[in-house]
Amino acid sequence: MLRWMFNLVYESIPVAIQSDYSLDESVSRLRTATRPWTPFSFMDSGAIGVVNENRVSLQRMVSFVNNGFKYHFYGKFLTRDDNRVVLKGRFTMSLFVKVFLTIWFGGVLLGTTGGFIAGITALSSGDRSGLAFLIGCPLFVAFACAFIHICKACSRGDIPWLTDLMTDTLTCRPGRVEIP
Questions:
Q1: How far is 61 from 176, CA to CA, in rounded Å?
Q2: 3-state secondary structure the chain
Q3: For the sheet containing 13-18, what is the strand order?
Q4: Average per-residue pLDDT in the chain?
Q5: What digits encode the pLDDT tens for the residues 47-68?
Q6: What is the pLDDT of residue 57?
Q7: Of 25, 161, 13, 166, the residue nearest 84 (C-alpha)
Q8: What percent of the chain has pLDDT over 90?
Q9: 16-34 pLDDT, tens per residue?
Q10: What percentage of residues in the chain have a pLDDT greater than 70?
Q11: Alpha-carbon distance 72 to 163, whole Å?
Q12: pLDDT digits over 105-116, tens only?
């Protein structure tokens, strides 16, 4: 159970995409296929983020839809010994969301522990209201976990979408559609 909760917040999905182009061409092609973030990015649809040789940070934007628990791609371009260029990174939630959830879950677990102690104390003194604490606290933790799980599940489509965008941009396959 604790492992599942840990993965709920800190899950990281690795990805490596081998490019058919040089480093400069790969960076240029991916930068062309994405847009930089602006305060009005919420009105756009597409890949938004930063693309340069040392840092790639991308997220999928859908017009007027924001999901703080969505997956972002964080990575960088690497040149292997055989001069092949690889975009290597991971899909995960943003650092801000991870820090927020760590603090929030800490408060939830601390409150649940206190509620359990209060419930047991109340029941041991003959007060039946302690039963509400014993039932309510685990339900609150379950609700919190379910909420985050559902929000993350709503953005699961972003991973294949961004992976396809990066793959299509960095590889030359016959008959593929060029990204404008």
A1: 23
A2: CHHHHHHHHHCCEEEEEECCCCHHHHHHHHHHHCECCCCCHHHCCEEEEEECCCCEEEEEEECCECCCCCCEEEEEEEECCCCCEEEEEEEECCHHHHHHHHHHHHHHHHHHHHHHHHHHHHHHCCCCCHHHHHHHHHHHHHHHHHHHHHHHHHCCCHHHHHHHHHHHHHCCCCCCCCCC
A3: 13-18, 85-92, 72-79, 56-61, 46-51
A4: 84
A5: 889 999 899 999 888 767 677 7
A6: 94
A7: 25
A8: 31
A9: 999 999 999 999 999 998 8
A10: 90
A11: 11
A12: 888 888 888 888
Type of residue numbered 45: S
Q: Using alpha carbons only, give the angle 17, 84, 92 rounded to the nearest 5 degrees.
A: 25
Mean of the pLDDT values across residues 78-89?
90
Rounded Cα distance, 128 and 123, in Å = 6
Is residue 30 within 8 Å of 51, Cβ to Cβ? Answer: yes
Q: Please report, as a single letter, which amino acid is at residue 25.
A: E
pTM of the model: 0.79
Q: Residue 49: left (phi > 0), alpha (psi -120 to 50), or beta?
A: left
Six-digit token pair at 79? 């040149």
Structure tokens, 75: 């990575």
Cα angle 110-114-119, degrees, rounded to a multiple of 5: 145
